[in-house]
Design goal:
Elements: E1 2-4, E2 7-12, H1 14-26, H2 31-43, H3 52-64, E3 68-72, E4 78-82, E5 87-94, E6 114-116, E7 119-121, H4 125-144, E8 151-158, H5 167-174, E9 183-186, E10 194-195, E11 197-198, E12 200-209, E13 213-214, H6 224-237, E14 244-245, E15 249-250, E16 252-259, E17 266-267, E18 270-279, H7 285-296, E19 301-304, E20 307-308, E21 320-321, E22 323-324, E23 327-328, H8 334-347, E24 353-354, H9 362-365, E25 373-375, E26 390-392, H10 393-415
Parallel strand pairs: 5-8, 5-9, 9-25, 10-24
Antiparallel strand pairs: 1-2, 3-4, 4-8, 6-7, 7-26, 11-23, 12-18, 12-19, 12-22, 13-17, 14-15, 16-18, 20-21
């Protein structure tokens, strides 16, 4: 057994240490192929609902990497398998990315992968195509080195995450009949540390009604925009009393959009505010609406959580309520221990265990389905959704090493 400095509770067993040495030796041999795969992903624009070319590229890479059972889900996610053990683990990273706002702000063309200073720049590199390259090549190394242990690893290049976190995973489990995994690993940006949760989010529409009239005779109407002013004040006043979590922090509530009828010469008969609400674990759609309703209904307003309308690139309808729960995995969960052990075996010490600031597909896996979920990825959160979108290529390969060795560490933790 190898004790890990500074981690008295973490001991790397000799078989895992030997496997880690084999991973470190083999990884440089796939580094260029991993880089080329990521470059191909960046070249393929894949806005939410338009991921087809990126999915097809991923499926082809899975086939070429020797993974088994390569296929697409009904919603068009890329799937492949390594191993056939009794512990089912899902590796997830999404293929869609945000739309380009202003290409002139980018130091490199967004769809032209550019390597500079050991980093690859391009749209989606940090969120989350670098993660896809990490899990696909981690699975490739695991297959080539026979590292699945007692695990069945399913690799998912998922879709639709940017607009509707977890909807594609929900479809995979609840519609396609995918067997519920024992654990989910999400390769979003963590800078090679571990993430065990994040706040959730939901969208709320608050509407006030008035009476329409011609703008030349406003005294005949009731202006709904003016009626919205005290409602906005009431929504703002809720902030200090929102639920708070000692690890994830407090909930937030921000008015992000205001809408009314598009008739500039008419007193508006309605006004609607859109609210972005960030959630702590345990909040429900009912509890969120009840709190907002208590604040706005005395002022004549109504509150609803809208349906998130979304279709996959394959034409499957996946619409559902715009409610994405928060979640937090216990620090002593076996999944956290397996992640720490994997890093200790590869690099001599366990990484920090933190939480994300943004939301992920964990809203479904952990927040809805209650599946233990953990995050690990090579990208850095600060570059996500920015013109500096990038990933460090050395960290990209390190992440593949993590995903290659993780099944053995997880088997050790689960089976002793």
């Amino acid at each position: 057994m190898t004790a890990v400095p500074g981690a008295d509770d973490l001991v790397v067993p000799p078989p895992l240490a030997e496997a880690a040495a084999r991973v470190r030796a083999a990884a440089p041999g796939v580094a260029q192929a991993q880089i080329d795969f990521l470059a191909g992903l960046i070249e393929r624009r894949s806005y939410t609902g338009e991921e087809g070319p990126a999915v097809e590229h991923t499926l082809a890479e899975m086939e070429a990497s020797g993974l088994s059972d390569v296929r697409a889900s009904s919603a068009g996610d890329a799937l492949a398998t390594v191993g056939d053990g009794r512990h089912r683990v899902l590796y997830d990273a999404h293929l869609d990315h945000n739309e380009i706002a202003d290409e002139d702000e980018w130091p490199h063309p967004p769809l032209q992968p550019t390597v500079d200073g050991g980093r690859m720049y391009g749209l989606g590199a940090a969120d989350c195509k670098g993660g896809v390259a990490a899990i696909v090549y981690g699975a490739r190394l695991a297959a080539e080195l026979s590292l699945a242990g007692e695990c069945t690893i399913v690799v998912q290049g998922s879709t639709l995450e940017e607009d509707a976190e977890g909807f594609a995973m929900r479809n995979l489990v609840e519609v396609d009949g995918f067997a519920v995994p024992d654990a989910v690993l999400i390769a979003e940006a963590t800078d090679l540390t571990l993430r065990r949760g994040h706040r959730g989010r939901c969208e709320v529409k608050v509407r006030v009604r008035g009476t329409a009239a011609h703008a030349s005779t406003p005294e005949l109407g009731e202006n709904a925009i003016l009626a919205m002013r005290p409602v906005l004040d009431a929504l703002e006043a809720m902030t200090p009393s929102l639920p708070d979590d000692p690890v994830l922090g407090g909930g937030t509530q921000v008015v992000t959009m205001i809408a009314s009828p598009r008739t500039p010469n008419t007193v508006p008969s309605w006004c609607e505010a859109t609210i972005d609400r960030r959630l702590t674990p345990g909040e429900t759609a009912e509890s969120v609406l009840a709190g907002i309703a208590a604040a706005v209904e005395p002022l004549g307003a109504t509150a609803t959580i809208p349906v998130q309308t979304i279709s996959s690139w394959t034409g499957v309808e996946l619409s559902g309520p715009a409610f994405f729960p928060g979640w937090l995995l216990a620090e002593d969960d076996p999944l956290v221990a397996a992640g720490r052990l994997t890093c200790a075996a590869l690099w001599g010490e366990p990484p920090p265990v933190e939480v994300w600031q943004f939301s992920t597909n964990g809203t479904y896996s952990a927040g809805v389905a209650g599946i233990p979920t953990l995050g690990f990825g090579p990208m850095e959160e600060r570059y996500a959704h920015t013109p500096q979108d990038q990933v460090d290529l050395a960290k990209l390969l390190d992440a593949a090493m993590f995903y290659a060795l993780f099944p053995l560490a997880y088997t050790h933790i689960r089976d002793g």
